[in-house]
Amino acid sequence: LESVYRSCGLVANICVYAAENKNKPIAIVVPVEAALQPLAKQNSISGDSVEALSGNKKLRAVALKEIQGVGKSGGLAGIEIIDGLVLARDEWTPQNGLVTSAMKVNRKAIIQKYKGEIDAVLAN
């Protein structure tokens, strides 16, 4: 799933998370700022950084539709299509422990760091 979603121009890195009590997964995404800024402007959303834009519900909804579209065009369907989105404010690096030294996603650390945002997305 992640390799398909990673092909979206908005996605620098991604961690797909499936909660036990939900039918569809959500994604925690490190956005590409150069792609996020124009998307925000096209949708009349103000903000000059990933940090400022990542909490915007309207932008998350627009970005979710873009990423879902890439999933569908990549052959994903049904329970493989993400149902929610968390836009990460920070880049994932080995220094902050969110990826390994081999640049593999550290799921446990990411889920722990973004637990509040994940819970909020899953509640909707």
Features:
124 residues, globular, alpha+beta, 42% helix
Range of helix content:
40-55%
How many helical stretches? 6
The number of strands is 3
What's the multimeric state? Answer: single chain
Q: Averaging pLDDT over every residue, what do you get?
A: 95
SSE string, helix = H, strand = E?
Answer: HEEHHHEHH
Strand fraction band?
5-15%
Task: Report the structural category.
Answer: alpha+beta
> Which runs of at least 5 residues are low in confidence (pLDDT < 50)?
none
Give the termini separation.
Answer: 22 Å
Main sheet: strand order: 1-2-3
Largest sheet: 3 strands, mixed
Instruction: Give Rg in angstroms.
Output: 14 Å
Describe the protein in words.
By secondary structure, the chain is of the alpha+beta class. Helices cover 42% and strands 13% of the residues. It has helices at 2-6, 33-42, 50-53, 57-73, 107-113, 115-123, and strands at residues 11-17, 26-31, 85-87. Strands 1-2-3 form a three-stranded mixed β-sheet, with helices on both faces. A hairpin with an 8-residue loop joins strand 1 (11-17) and strand 2. The radius of gyration is 14 Å and the shape is globular.
